[in-house]
Every structure is written in structure tokens, then in C-alpha cells.
């Protein structure tokens, strides 16, 4: 199996298992996304999986203009001063029955994996105004899923992302940084620091040096 597909399979399979394990009380627990419960976050994740289905079926008909790393430079939703995205997701989440939401998420991610396996890794697809190689696009999906997996752990006690998912996040962040991460940071710590999910400590700042002011690399 292609490595980028294996990583996405690990990310999606783990999240689907978490989704299907949630009870009603779990679904209202907080997450690392301010203002969102676990239920809200799965509505967002479902939307991302649906976007993936559309993208994998949409040839770009032009060369790629983003890589797995540079996709994050101007990815949609980074700036939302009026919290429109937050409010719209909360509104949609209130309308879903939990078991239907989680089952829909699980079946949608399975469909994404099936379609991704049929796509040539070098073909170029269109999404959110950009064009990416399928291999790079799958990495962006893994990063999105892996970081939100970390967000879920704030409120629910479940296992964290697998090693291959964290390794994909590390490579992506290193691509944005322009060089390898300091060896002092393990993959989990690097994912949290690089995405703003961990406040940079004085020791972190020393390890990062002048790069510290560039963080978070993914917002």
C-alpha cells in the first residue's frame, strides 16, 4: 500500500472508531477547538471527508500549484473574526442524531479510502481553488484528521493518533518550516507545537531559536 494511503487509512480508521464509540454524554464534551464539542468537531470532519470525495473525483486539468506542505499557507478557514464557521457547524450539529452522524462519518471515510486507492498518486485534483497531486492531497487529509484527533482527546479518553499519522504531520510542518525540526521534539510534541496546540515554553523557544516567532505553522 502506498505510504500516504496507509497513513490516511490509519487516521480515518481511528477517528471512525472514536466516533462510533461516543455516547450522548461524550458527544457534548469539549475539544481543543474553542466553542466546539466532540459532536461539533465530527460535523466538521464529515464535511472534510465529503470534500475529499469531491476532490478525488475532480481532475484539475492543470499542473499542481500546492504541495502537502504549501497547501496550509492559505488554507480556507484560517481567518474567521466573526466565528461564522464555528456558529454554522454548531447549528448543523444540533440537527444531527448522534448515531446517524457517527455512522455517516464512518461510511464516508471508508468511501474516501476506496476512491483514493483507485486514484493514481501522480494525478492532479482540484480542491478549494488549488491543484494538488493525489499523494499530496491525501497527506493534507491525514494532517487535518490527525490534528483534530488530538483535539478530541481534550474531552474524551481515547487512544491518540498512530505513529504514521504523526510522522505525516511532522513532515508537513518541516516542509513549512523549511528544514527538519529540532531533534529534541518527538512527533507528538512537534505536532502540538507546530499547530498551536501547545504553548511554546521557554525551553521550546531555546530549541527553536529564531524560528520560534514563526509558530504556529498551521493555524
Strand residue content: under 5%
The tally of domains stands at 1
Shape: globular
Structural class: mainly alpha
- Per CATH, the architecture is Up-down Bundle
Low-confidence stretches: none
CATH fold name: Four Helix Bundle (Hemerythrin (Met), subunit A)
Helix content: 55-70%
Task: Break the fold down into its secondary structure elements and pairings.
Blueprint: H1 3-21, H2 24-27, H3 38-56, H4 84-95, H5 98-118, E1 124-127, E2 130-133, H6 134-152, H7 163-177, H8 187-194, H9 202-208
Antiparallel strand pairs: 1-2
Overall description:
The chain starts with a helix and ends in an 11-residue tail after the last helix. It has a single domain, classed as dinb family like domain (Four Helix Bundle (Hemerythrin (Met), subunit A), Up-down Bundle), CATH 1.20.120. The mean pLDDT is 94. It has helices spanning 3-21, 24-27, 38-56, 84-95, 98-118, 134-152, 163-177, 187-194, 202-208; strands at 124-127, 130-133. The longest helix is centred in the middle third of the chain and has 21 residues, at 98-118. 57% of the residues lie in helices and 4% in strands. Strand 1 and strand 2 (130-133) form a beta hairpin. It is globular and about 50 Å long. The protein is built from 9 helices and 2 strands, in the order H-H-H-H-H-E-E-H-H-H-H. The chain has 219 residues and is mainly α. Strands 1-2 form a two-stranded antiparallel sheet.
Amino acid at each position: 500500500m502506498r505510504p500516504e494511503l496507509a497513513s490516511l487509512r490509519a487516521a480515518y480508521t481511528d477517528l471512525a472508531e472514536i466516533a462510533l464509540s461516543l455516547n450522548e454524554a461524550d458527544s457534548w464534551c469539549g475539544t481543543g477547538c474553542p466553542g466546539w464539542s466532540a459532536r461539533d468537531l465530527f460535523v466538521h470532519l464529515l464535511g472534510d471527508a465529503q470534500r475529499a470525495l469531491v476532490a478525488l473525483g475532480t481532475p484539475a486539468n492543470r499542473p499542481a500549484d500546492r504541495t502537502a506542505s504549501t497547501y496550509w499557507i492559505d488554507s480556507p478557514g484560517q481567518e474567521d473574526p466573526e466565528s461564522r464557521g464555528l456558529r454554522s457547524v454548531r447549528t448543523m450539529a444540533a440537527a444531527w442524531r448522534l448515531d446517524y452522524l457517527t455512522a455517516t462519518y464512518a461510511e464516508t471515510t471508508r468511501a474516501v479510502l476506496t476512491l483514493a486507492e483507485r486514484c493514481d498518486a501522480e494525478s492532479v485534483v482540484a480542491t478549494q481553488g488549488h491543484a494538488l497531486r493525489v499523494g499530496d492531497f491525501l497527506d493534507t487529509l491525514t494532517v487535518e484528521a490527525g490534528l483534530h484527533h488530538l483535539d478530541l482527546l481534550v474531552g474524551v479518553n481515547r487512544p491518540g493518533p498512530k505513529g504514521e499519522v504523526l510522522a505525516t504531520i511532522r513532515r508537513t510542518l518541516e516542509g513549512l518550516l523549511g528544514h527538519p525540526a529540532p531533534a529534541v521534539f518527538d512527533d507528538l510534541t512537534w505536532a502540538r507545537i507546530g499547530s498551536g496546540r501547545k504553548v511554546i515554553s521557554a525551553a521550546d523557544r531555546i530549541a527553536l531559536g529564531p524560528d520560534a516567532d514563526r509558530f504556529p505553522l498551521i493555524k
